[in-house]
Amino acid sequence: MQNKKQRIAAMCAILAKHPNKLYSLNYFQKMFGAAKSSLSEDAAVIKQVFADVGIGCVETVAGAHGGIRYIPRMPENTRALLLKELTEKMRDTSRILPGGYMYIADLFCTPYYVDGMAQIMAEWFAGAKADFIVTVETKGIPLAMSVARILNLPLAIARRESKLTDGSVFSINYLSGSSRRLQTMSLSKRMIKEGTKALVVDDFIAGGGTVKAICDMLTEFNIDVVGMGAAIVNRYPQKKRISGYKAIFELEELSETKIEISAY
């Protein structure tokens, strides 16, 4: 049987690895062979330390199906440093691509940055009571997957082209807000359940056509969209095809020689 310090260290690691997952005291009792009273004291210590440091809280759920879970929070100074660093990186003019585009794939494939942005989004929508998260392939997947991990929710991915492995799918044609081209989006019916609540996450919103298409598709299944979040939103066009979304950054200007972007 491990001593108190070992138990607390192990419990911290387990709770932090799977945020928002409810762990019963029986789970830890079997793991450590300690009395529930001792584990309750350990949980109280962890709860106090996490609160003092400002990295979240440990919530205790009473009852036969209760337990403890870790709800992470990002300290304000950490958030400010992350947003400052990302803003500076995205303003680098070497990211300007022909055709009025900006290269950001490296940022969305760097765990430190994508997990940081996901934590900000997870805090926005922690109280939305979503049942699952939806995104569209492909650049939004890392961000959406990280948000799903933090909120302990499953992720459904809408595809541009359906695969045989998706099984039965629902497809919708929509007008892209950025390219103004007619595109197709498909979602596996096995990924969703009628009458549930969804959170839509994407990497970039231009005119809002893609996110609107996702919302329209979910409406067909009587699914309530309880939140829409994006890493970056383009200032123009100012009139989007959606409303009520939240974004971490606003792209104010993108020219051949300049990128102006700021955190909300």
From TrEMBL:
<dbReference type="InterPro" id="IPR036390">
    <property type="entry name" value="WH_DNA-bd_sf"/>
</dbReference>
<dbReference type="InterPro" id="IPR029057">
    <property type="entry name" value="PRTase-like"/>
</dbReference>
<dbReference type="InterPro" id="IPR015265">
    <property type="entry name" value="PuR_N"/>
</dbReference>
<dbReference type="InterPro" id="IPR050118">
    <property type="entry name" value="Pur/Pyrimidine_PRTase"/>
</dbReference>
<comment type="similarity">
    <text>Belongs to the purine/pyrimidine phosphoribosyltransferase family. PurR subfamily.</text>
</comment>
<keyword id="KW-0805">Transcription regulation</keyword>
<dbReference type="InterPro" id="IPR036388">
    <property type="entry name" value="WH-like_DNA-bd_sf"/>
</dbReference>
<dbReference type="Pfam" id="PF09182">
    <property type="entry name" value="PuR_N"/>
</dbReference>
<dbReference type="InterPro" id="IPR010078">
    <property type="entry name" value="PurR_Bsub"/>
</dbReference>
<dbReference type="Pfam" id="PF00156">
    <property type="entry name" value="Pribosyltran"/>
</dbReference>
<keyword id="KW-0804">Transcription</keyword>
<feature type="domain" description="Phosphoribosyltransferase">
    <location>
        <begin position="118"/>
        <end position="252"/>
    </location>
</feature>
<keyword id="KW-0238">DNA-binding</keyword>
<feature type="domain" description="Bacterial purine repressor N-terminal">
    <location>
        <begin position="4"/>
        <end position="72"/>
    </location>
</feature>
<protein>
    <submittedName>
        <fullName>Pur operon repressor</fullName>
    </submittedName>
</protein>
<dbReference type="InterPro" id="IPR000836">
    <property type="entry name" value="PRTase_dom"/>
</dbReference>
<comment type="subunit">
    <text>Homodimer.</text>
</comment>
